[in-house]
Specification:
The chain is mainly β. It is built from 3 helices and 18 strands.
């Protein structure tokens, strides 16, 4: 159902960027958003030297440790220029930058497989995923391959939003689990208006909304996968996270969006109907 023009639907309470695909990322106070998404988001990715596929935590059988790495941009990023180097913290605590001469050999050693470092999107990029062996999944214990959208190193779309309402709904359904926003890897976390117990962002699908100075077309729900269940930082491995998403909302948490007008988004900005 379309909202009334001028209606405020919520506010931005956190902003996240992931400079290296499938590694932990960084929280920001403000960010420039272009037609290709947040500046510096998924600027880099690891490529399996054996298969040529993009490394993804969606397949923890092949890439079990990617969430033990953290990446932040080493310098401010500006529109129209190449991304600055990313600073990668390895599981050992050692820090490398993506412009280091030995970066590929050091990353290969750290992940346990020969890898190359992609510094931009490339045509025909694909990655692999894996559905765990749980009877409540439609394709248990199955590996799959999927193409990345043209022009980027994203799995599904250039921008991803999640609301606090959705996380609260999941927490209420499974209070023994930790539905931390980090499990869902959004770009923008939105605190919606109103008090209805629902997956609020699902109602925005099909609409064009303004977030700060940016216009986003909300395209479709975000289907969740094994990544939500993996350990990261102080979050333990927990299959109940995905099970609850499947039970409560068909496995969808959050929405994917396309950038219609680029601009700046800051913490505290409203999201609403232009």
């Amino acid at each position: 159902m379309a909202e009334t023009p001028g209606a405020v639907l919520g506010r931005v309470i956190s902003i996240w960027r992931y400079p290296v695909k499938s590694m932990l990322g960084e929280e920001l106070d403000a960010v420039e958003v272009t037609e290709h998404g947040l500046l510096g988001d998924r600027a880099y990715a690891l490529i399996d030297a054996e298969t040529g596929k993009v490394a993804s935590a969606k397949n923890p059988r092949r890439w079990p440790t990617l969430f033990d790495f953290k990446a932040v941009l080493a310098e401010p990023v500006s529109q129209g220029s190449s991304p600055p180097p990313a600073r990668i913290t390895l599981p050992s605590g050692e820090v490398l930058t993506t412009d280091a001469e030995e970066i590929e050999s050091r990353l290969s050693e750290a992940v346990g497989r020969p890898v190359r470092l992609a510094r931009s999107a490339f045509e025909g990029a694909t990655a692999e995923g894996y559905w765990p062996d749980h009877e409540w999944l439609p394709q248990p214990d199955e590996q799959f391959e999927f193409p990345l959208p043209a022009g980027g190193l994203f799995d599904g779309a250039t921008v991803h939003l999640v609301t606090t309402r959705s996380l609260d709904r999941l927490r209420a359904a499974a209070p023994e689990s930790r539905f931390d926003v980090r499990r869902f890897r959004p770009n923008f976390v939105i605190d919606p208006t109103g008090a209805a117990d629902t997956f609020a962002e699902d109602g925005w699908i099909g609409q064009t909304l303004q977030v700060g100075g940016v216009l986003l077309r909300i395209d479709r729900p975000t289907p969740r996968c094994v990544m939500t269940t993996l350990a990261q930082g102080d979050l333990p491995k927990d299959s109940t996270v995905l099970r609850t998403a499947v039970r409560e909302n068909g496995g969808n948490v959050g929405v994917y969006a396309t950038v219609i007008r680029h601009g700046l988004v800051k913490i505290g900005d409203t999201i609403g109907v232009p």
